[in-house]
Specification:
The chain is α/β, with parallel strands linked by helices and 277 residues long. It has a single domain, classed as NAD(P)-binding Rossmann-like Domain (Rossmann fold). Helix content is 46%, strand content 14%. Helix 1 crosses helix 6, helix 3 runs parallel beside helix 4 and helix 4 runs parallel beside helix 5. The protein is globular and about 55 Å long. Belongs to the short-chain dehydrogenases/reductases (SDR) family. Keywords: Oxidoreductase.
């Protein structure tokens, strides 16, 4: 019960931010692995329906829900619809997120700070809280994937709000993993995913640090999917994320600033950021 999930046959998979990019790629993987129900959440109804059409007719039943995950009321209402329509998800992939790349004092209070924390942090907690009690009671092998970021492990200029949202995700997600283990709910495994920059358009203009090129989305989603099925507690990609985290932990701050800024180029990686248009 507690090992690798070999097959998703008969399972229900829920993915947030599923209308495009890596969210849609996860949906394709769920269909490929013969999930019975693939539940797609996104704020963009037009793209959501296009994704459903693309995924349909391949054996899985596709369910779409237009939802603004920055709003708790919308999460509660949509979660209730999912429970009534398909039941409790066996696999929950908290993928939705936004980024605002600018100095902290340039952030707008509502559209930048509040929105980033609501979508990148609070939404993951609220959505998981909606489904987790039934996942616990169900006793089926289940998985929760929380998409964080390498920015949640290392501070970076022009990422103060984004980094803080991902730091919070990492702390919450790994604590949740430990709580489930301690309470004996070992059929549920939590994977915290901490990637560097990925070529999705979300980080358009960002430059990868030394030895850390922007990663290809297809390869990344395949690796995350495997980690999810294996129940890997934390996945950092690429390997330089682990190296940077280790160096940050042992070097004095002044020395690390030199290494990160002048050697690896981490502190300059967002200088030409434009983001998705």
């Amino acid at each position: 019960m507690t090992g690798t999930i070999e097959s998703l046959t008969g399972s229900t998979v829920l993915i947030t931010g599923a209308a495009m990019g890596m969210g849609k790629m996860y949906a394709h993987l769920a269909v490929r692995d013969h999930a019975a129900h693939v539940v797609l959440w996104d704020i963009n109804g037009e793209l959501l329906e296009a994704a459903a059409a693309e995924l349909g007719g391949r054996g899985s039943e596709i369910h779409t829900y237009v939802v603004d995950v920055s709003k708790l009321e919308a999460i509660e209402q949509t979660a209730e619809m999912v429970r009534n329509d398909v039941g409790t998800p066996d696999i929950l992939i908290n993928n939705a997120g936004i980024v605002r790349g600018k100095y902290f004092w340039e952030h707008e209070q509502r559209s930048d700070i509040a929105a980033t924390m609501a979508i990148n942090t609070l939404a993951l907690m609220h959505i998981t809280r909606e489904f987790l009690p039934a996942m616990i009671d169900g006793g089926r092998p289940s998985r929760i994937v929380n998409v964080a970021s390498a920015a949640g492990l290392l501070a970076n200029p022009r990422m103060s709000v984004y980094s803080s949202s991902k730091w919070a995700v990492i702390g919450w997600s790994d604590s949740l993993r430990l709580e489930l283990k301690q309470a004996g709910h070992r059929h549920i495994k939590v994977t915290t995913f901490c990637p560097s920059y990925i070529k999705t358009g979300m980080f358009e203009g960002a430059r990868g640090p030394l030895m850390t090129p922007l990663m290809e989305p297809a390869a990344v989603t395949e690796r995350v999917w495997r980690a999810m099925k294996e129940g890997t507690p934390m996945l950092m990609m690429p390997w330089t994320v682990k190296l940077s985290t280790a160096l940050r932990g042992v070097l004095p701050i002044a020395a690390w600033d030199v290494v990160a800024g002048r050697v690896f180029g981490v502190y300059k990686s967002m200088e030409h950021f434009t983001g998705r248009k």
